[in-house]
Each structure stands twice: as structure tokens, then as C-alpha cells.
Input
Amino acid sequence: MMRRPLAPPALSGPRFNEFIQSQKVRVIDHEGENLGVMYTREAIEQAREVGLDLVEVSPNADPPVAKFLDVGKFKYEAQKKANLARKSQKTQEIKEIKMRPNIDDHDYDTKMKKVVEFIEEGDKVKVTMRFRGRELSHGQLGMAVLQRVAEQTAEIAKVEAHPRMEGRQMLMVLAPK
Output
């Protein structure tokens, strides 16, 4: 049985030292000074003399830009930066507020406080008007309440989906401006 030679391990992150594929690179030393364009082998030797690696920082440039860096430290810093960016990202959620067509003023005010709070946090709000029994034949009452919600939030939100009936409920979606 004939065995195939093992392929080099898949490289994650930037290319460095022997993995740099171009013949020549523009070199920047560990102090940030531009050493100019030189052969990759020569640049690797110079980096080793300083005790660092030659890391390709801009592979798409012509010629590629490489820097004298510690590869482990460079990867660690890049990963920390990516984690911080992921952590500070806010995902937009859809919050739901349920109402009835004959909602009382105090209950309406309480629900409106929550609607405003959700929109100010940057979330979308789905306002659901539920109809039970004979209320279904008085859809205009539910529509009036949803129009009132839209008018009161007009300064901070826009109506993304206008009121529409779905079975026994009427839906409207508000999104922050």
C-alpha cells in the first residue's frame, strides 16, 4: 500500500515566514520603518536576526507588505480585537406587545411606556391586537387603537408594517427611526 505525503496543515490567519508565497515583499521593521522592497528569503533572515517573524500584513498590495512581528502575539491581538467587535455588536430583536380593542386608558399608558422603552433600546416592536368573540366584527375599534399607538410613537419610530388582520388578531410592526 502506497502512502501519500502529508499535506501541510491548513494555515489560519496571516501568512508568515516560509508560508509567504510572493518572491518580493515590501518590508516594515519592528520599529515601523519602511525598509523597501526586498526578496522574501532575505527579509525572513533579517527578521530572524532580530528574533521576530516576517508576517504578511497586506497580502493584496503590489508587492505584498510584510512586517517584523511576533506571530503568536499578532494572532492573539487580532483575536482580541475580533472578540471586542463581536461583543459590542447589538442585535435587533422584535419585542411583542399584546392589546385588546377595548383597552382601558391606564393599561394603554402602561403598555405605551414599554413600547417607547423597547424602541429607545433599538428593538422593533410588534403590536398585536387580539379580538375575542363579537369584538371581531368591530375591527375599526382595534384599528383606532393601533392608529393611536402609531401617532404617539411617530417621533421616535416609523411604522414598518401597517396594521393587517391575521386570523383573530391585527398586527403592526414599529421600528426605531
Summary: The mean pLDDT is 90. Strands lie at 24-28, 34-39, 53-58, 65-69, 94-99, 124-130, 157-166, 169-176. Helices lie at 40-50, 71-87, 105-120, 139-152. The chain is about 35% helix and 30% strand.
